[in-house]
UniProtKB/TrEMBL annotation:
<protein>
    <submittedName>
        <fullName>Protein phosphatase 2C</fullName>
    </submittedName>
</protein>
<dbReference type="Pfam" id="PF13672">
    <property type="entry name" value="PP2C_2"/>
</dbReference>
<dbReference type="InterPro" id="IPR036457">
    <property type="entry name" value="PPM-type-like_dom_sf"/>
</dbReference>
<dbReference type="InterPro" id="IPR001932">
    <property type="entry name" value="PPM-type_phosphatase-like_dom"/>
</dbReference>
<feature type="domain" description="PPM-type phosphatase">
    <location>
        <begin position="15"/>
        <end position="191"/>
    </location>
</feature>
Length: 245
């Protein structure tokens, strides 16, 4: 199993990349991946996505410590594990918000989060906001008319009520080739002269095509190909994680 990732500032953004991504081990046999996209019109829009990534890293580290000192517990389904992670994430965000007196507008970020249990060979994806998920060749685009839901909107809500209202969920039992991406993947435009005479499907090229998958830096090669051969670059910030078995 190989995990590839890429984070790139959009061509229309000059100061900060508002996207962020995280890949980590949640305990011994689980992989946690997440991509985040900060709200452009929010205050310091890059802050929220970075903060979520740091908190997810903390949650993974703490899980590793707990499994080290605790006796083996009964396995639970990936959705239940991810639900616990999300609950911890929102709790940590509330703590930071209160300690630093942060405004809600400083905590606006989308979140696509994936948990895969290697032992159970099953996984779960939750999408809060917009973006793209490809599960073994089945692509699902999550569009919210450029008015995405943001994690920061839900800090004061009862968690169970909030979670029950989430309907952008995907469960899968096989991992062959899976990608999660922020909505920057939809924003590739022809900004440079095109050398190739062929046309290319950006989403298929990034999430299905396996050219250069034998290399750890597969995405840099693919992004350079899109730029140099087809003149295509993302105009919005873009983050993607892809897992190939």
């Amino acid at each position: 199993m190989r995990i590839y990732s890429s984070l790139q500032i959009g061509d229309y953004h000059r100061n900060n990349c508002e996207d962020h991504l995280f890949v980590g081990e949640y305990g011994k046999n689980k992989i946690l991946c997440a991509v985040m996209d900060g709200c452009t019109t929010a205050l310091e829009s890059q802050f929220a996505s970075l903060l979520v990534g740091k908190i997810l890293k903390k949650i993974c580290i703490e899980k590793g410590y707990k499994e080290f000192i605790e006796k083996k517990t009964e396995p639970i389904l990936p959705e239940e594990n991810l639900k616990l992670i999300l609950q911890d994430l929102l709790s940590e965000l509330r703590i930071v918000k209160n300690q630093l007196l942060i405004d809600e507008k400083e905590l606006l970020t989308t979140l696509i989060i994936l948990l895969f249990d290697k032992e159970q060979e099953s996984g779960f994806v939750l999408v809060i906001g917009d973006g793209l998920v490809n599960i073994n060749g089945k692509i699902t685009e999550f569009e919210q008319d450029n008015k995405p839901d943001y994690l920061g909107f839900h800090l004061t809500e009862d968690f169970q009520t909030f979670y029950n209202l989430q309907n952008q969920k995907i469960t899968f039992n096989t991992l062959n080739d899976i990608s999660i991406s922020t909505d920057g993947i939809f924003t590739f435009e022809k900004l440079l002269p095109k050398k190739s005479q062929e046309e290319i499907d950006v989403i298929q090229f990034l999430t299905i095509d396996k050219v250069n998958s034998e290399k750890d830096d597969m995405f840099p090669f693919k992004l350079k190909t899109l730029e140099n051969e087809f003149g295509l670059k993302p105009t919005d910030d873009f983050s993607i994680i892809r897992i190939i078995k």
